Amino acid sequence: MVQDNGKEQTLALKLRVWRQRRGQPGAFEEHSLAAVPTSASFLEMMDMLNEQLIKAGKDTFAFDHDCREGICGMCSMTINGMPHGPIPGVTTCQLHMRNFRDGETITVEPWRARAFPVLKDLAVDRSGFDKVIQSGGFITVRTGSAPEANNIPVPKPVADEAMDAAECIGCGACVASCKNGSAMLFVGAKINHLNILPQGQAERDRRTLSMVKTMDEAGFGNCSNYGECQAHCPKSITLDVIAKLNRDYLRARVKEFFSSTGKPSKGGD
Amino acid sequence: MALTGLVLAGFVLGHMTGNLLMFKSSEAINAYAAWLHANKGLLWGARTVLILSTFAHIWVGIQLALENRAARDGGPADDATRRATIASRTMPYSGVVILGFAIFHLLHFTFRTIALGGATFAEGDVYKMLIAGFSCKPVAYFYIISMLLLCLHLSHGVSSVFQTLGLRNERWRSRLDGLALAYAWIIALGFISIPLAVLTGCLK
Questions:
Q1: Rg for chain A (alpha carbons), in Å?
Q2: Closest to A94 (Cα-Cα) out of A40, A50, A163, A165
Q3: In chain A, what are the domain boundaries?
Q4: pLDDT above 60 (res A3)
Q5: Domain A127-257 class?
Q6: Rounded to an integer, what distance in angstroms lies between the CA atom of residue A172 and that of residue A75?
Q7: pLDDT, mean of residues A135-160
């Protein structure tokens, strides 16, 4: 936003930022930050705050970030109670300060969920997601030279649906926004991505059962269809993936229950 | 939750349509009640399924509520809600009130250990029993409030059944939400019509 005199608008902000050391109780710290350009991203504003703290000889705030172009899924702040802030469909790094008012008080917290313990300040441990992926979020292939791309035809609608699910960047905003701390949107996205592609068929049922089991063991909550995850997902993944996850899970459980043992039962003929 | 909820949501529809015989005549509702009690197999079959579903629904509901509370870990200090409905957020609370109502309702009209309304329940005369029962104003108001909460509970629950069974998508979500809301209102208004008719003197 540019003013008439050609100079960029700036904001003076009051920040309530969460301070916590691993395993200890945390609390909010209040800071004032002046001359924040409206074109700055939220993470650049946090960098300004940290520079101010360094100059004053104080401890900086730890926060996760990497690509800063909205595709890596590292940034993870709850801003005024909303994961990734007030604008739907964007990550924290793509949230710009022009969406805030001069003089506003902004509350910055880490993701809040039992499965995402705080490492330091705003950085949380999201290895629960890694465990879910390790338990089935892949397609087992022999490594080596790349196979001929057209060996396995993928119908266009299937490819589109898989790509929609594959948009998930695994940031954890679904868990942080869910009032049950549930990871169903994340797991649903991963399962949909792989379960509908021809390459994913061989491990479909095993993948579904295993990822859901790992999800439960990692301490995530259950889905009760609030829809908050979809409303806060920076990639606008829809609840469709959860419905499909439920369907695939039911199917896999039924198939497992009635699976053939390959042998006649005792007393059978 | 979905399967047991489906049984219970189906039951309230049957119960409600049966009740509406009140408006036909006293003979109609009494004959219906007598028919139900004459078919012991049907009555106890339905009761067994209902009792099992109710206990399973409550047990799983409590378990989920406790797990979910623990998983949330307190939540953000500055919590914001974008689209979760009041109905979805109050399911455990509306559920508890409906359970309390169901227990009272059974003691009142099935076991008849609570004789509010000062009625002497003549065996077989369901019509008179209901008129006497709802003539007691606190009973009628509690009944109406509980049915409105049942409406709230069903509006979220019925739609969620489809999601849990994997039979919902972005296109059908709003339609199914509308269908669930319509179903919930039909059930609630059907039930409420009887105490309301007694209170206003339409049924005597």
A1: 23
A2: A40
A3: 10-119, 127-257
A4: no
A5: mainly alpha
A6: 10
A7: 90
- Please provide the DSSP assignment of B75-106 as one string: --SS---SS--HHHHTHHHHHHHHHHHHHHHI
| Reduced 3-state DSSP string for A214-233 | HHHHCCCECCCCCCHHHHHC
CB burial of A121-148 (b: ≥16 within 10 Å; e: otherwise) equals bbbbebebbeebeebbbeeeeeeeeeee
Query: What token pair was written down for A240?
Result: 């469709």
Cβ contact B190:B150 at 8 Å:
no
- Quick check: A20 contacting B, CB < 8 Å? no
| A10-119 and A127-257: identical CATH topology | no
Q: Is B51 exposed, middle or buried (0-12, 13-18, 19+ CB in 10 A)?
A: exposed
Closest by CA to A197, choosing from A137, A144, A119, A237, is: A137
Nearest to A228 among B78, B84, B166 (CB): B84
Tally A–B CB contacts below 8 A: 116
C-alpha A46/C-alpha B38 separation (Å) is 75
Angle CA(A97)–CA(A98)–CA(A102) in degrees, nearest 5?
A: 85
Chain A: residue nearest B91 by CA?
A224
- Residue B88 has its nearest CB partner, among A88, A224, A232, at A224
Burial class (CB in 10 A: 0-12, 13-18, 19+), B180: buried
Q: Is the pLDDT of residue A268 over 60?
A: no
Side chain identity, residue A106: I
pLDDT tens-digit series, residues A32-68:
999 999 999 999 999 999 999 999 999 999 999 999 9
Chain A residues with beta carbon closer than 8 angstroms to that of B79 = 81
The answer to whether A246 contacts B163, with C-beta atoms less than 8 Å apart, is yes
Residue A120's H or E segment, with its range, is strand A118-120
**At residue A205, what is the residue type?**
D
Task: Determine phi and psi for A34, rounding to 5 degrees.
Answer: -105, 165
Q: Is A216 on the interface with B (CB under 8 A)?
A: no
Give me the pLDDT at residue A251, please.
Answer: 96
Cα separation, B193 vs A213, in Å, equals 47
Residue A2 has pLDDT above 50, yes or no: no
Q: What are phi and psi of B156, to 5 degrees?
A: -85, -40
Nearest C-alpha neighbor of B130 from the set B32, B24, B22, B15? B22
In this structure, which amino acid lies at residue A88? P
Classified as helix, coil or strand, A9 is: coil
Give the single-character DSSP code of A38. T
For chain A, the distance separating the N- and C-terminal CA atoms, rounded to the nearest angstrom, is 82
Class of domain A10-119: alpha beta
